[in-house]
Write a structure and sequence with these properties.
The chain has 366 residues and is an alpha/beta fold. It has two domains: 157 residues, 3-Layer(aba) Sandwich (Rossmann fold), CATH 3.40.50.720; 123 residues, N-(1-d-carboxylethyl)-l-norvaline Dehydrogenase, domain 2. It is 51% helix and 11% strand. The protein is built from 15 helices and ten strands. A six-stranded parallel sheet has the order 4-3-2-5-6-7, with helices on both faces. Strands 1-10-9-8 form a four-stranded mixed sheet, with helices on both faces. Helix 10 crosses helix 12 and helix 14 packs across helix 15. The N and C termini lie close together (8 Å).
């Protein structure tokens, strides 16, 4: 929408004043981008690993809606969940609905209280959840947390335990944890999830399972309890490789959705209608469907993926691109926008807040 003409000024003066204000605002955002450009460039190019092409294996998909032979509720094994954040809380709630006894731990008392309210059993130390579980699900925030948790699991002496690590973390760190647990007779699977927190609530997740095939099969009923589909991606670590490919697309599609909607807003198009119509056409994307409504409403406080958490994923994607010697001009162009969102105080906001970044860069608010 055009800026209103200030009272008492002619049209030329109004345009001059608006132009000055626009340049000032755009300059402020530009300053943010400049200050936050330390992560803007990808890591230095490194030669690809010699075994890159040896990893390819057939991908098997298991749909939750079509799986057969599931155990009855009375026979469900106990599932432990460590990490009851956005994803862990939704996973736990859906497992409870599916009839699984769930024992969970999180360092935050509020998270444990919410878990208890969802019908699961919240415990005050992780060792209690590990001891009670036949299967264990990890939903952790960073590499350090996985290192700590893997040591706790190893110390518990739970031989035969099968563990699904669902977090988006560095593959070498996951492999180190898997090796530590394997020495104790415990199987760790690399099982990152595709989907937002909102999708997790609706059991609309895809599990990218990788590692021991027998362990994946043994955990299939558990995966069906909280996910729409499970893909067996093959060797350990392939789940994370697939997840980074998916997140590269998410990084780009999220910002492209914001660009399209901001353009529509400036052209006078109703954004709720735009989300509906565009999602049904060739330009539609899952990010437009999932984050478009928040962009339309201009609200991103209820995060299903926090900008601060997303920064971790962006760095992992950048490192993987460098390892594979892949040019990534579109991904590289996205990095300063997410950095600017952090600089503007959106660290705890949903990544839909990139709309706010672009809007302020254009110097005209709603």
């Amino acid at each position: 929408m055009p800026l209103p003409r200030p009272a008492g000024q002619d049209r030329g003066a109004a345009r001059s004043g608006a132009r000055a204000r626009a340049m000032s605002r755009a300059g402020a955002v530009g300053a943010i981008l400049g200050k936050l450009s330390i992560d803007q460039l990808l890591p230095p190019e490194r030669p690809p690993p010699a075994s890159r092409h040896a990893r390819g294996q057939a991908v098997t998909a298991f749909s939750a809606s079509s799986s057969t032979g599931s155990a009855s509720s009375a026979q469900r094994p106990t599932v432990g969940v460590l990490g009851i954040g956005i994803m862990g809380s939704a996973i736990s709630a859906n497992l409870v609905k599916a009839g699984f006894p769930v024992v969970g731990y999180d360092p935050l008392p509020a998270a444990r209280a919410a878990l208890q309210a969802a019908g699961a059993t919240a415990v005050s130390v992780p060792e209690e959840a590990i001891a009670a579980a036949r299967f264990l699900i990890l939903c952790l925030p960073n590499d350090a947390a996985l290192c700590d948790v893997s040591r706790q699991i190893a110390a518990a002496g739970a031989e035969g335990l099968r563990v699904a690590e669902t977090s988006t973390l560095a593959i070498p760190v996951k492999q180190q944890a898997a090796d530590l647990l394997a020495a104790r007779g415990i199987t760790l699977l690399d099982c990152p999830l595709s989907g937002t927190g909102a999708q997790a609530v609706n059991r609309d997740l895809a599990v990218y399972a990788s590692g021991d095939a027998a362990a994946i099969e043994a955990m299939q009923d558990v995966f069906d309890g909280f996910a729409r589909v499970t893909y067996n991606i093959g060797a350990f670590g392939n789940g994370m490789r697939m997840k980074l490919m998916a997140n590269l697309l998410v990084a780009i599609h999220n910002i492209s959705a914001a660009e399209a909607l901001l353009m529509g807003h400036r052209l006078g198009i109703d954004l709720d209608l735009a989300v509906k119509v565009l999602s049904d056409g060739a330009g539609g994307s899952r990010m437009l469907q999932v984050r478009g409504p928040a962009m339309s409403a201009g609200t991103w406080d209820e995060a299903t993926m926090k900008v601060s958490t997303w920064q971790k994923d962006m760095k992992l994607i950048g490192a993987a691109l460098a390892d594979a010697n892949v040019p990534a001009p579109l991904f590289s162009a996205c990095i300063p926008v997410y950095n600017a969102a952090m600089g503007m105080g959106h660290g705890e906001s949903d990544t839909a807040a990139v709309y706010d970044v672009l809007e302020k860069m254009s110097a005209i608010s709603r």
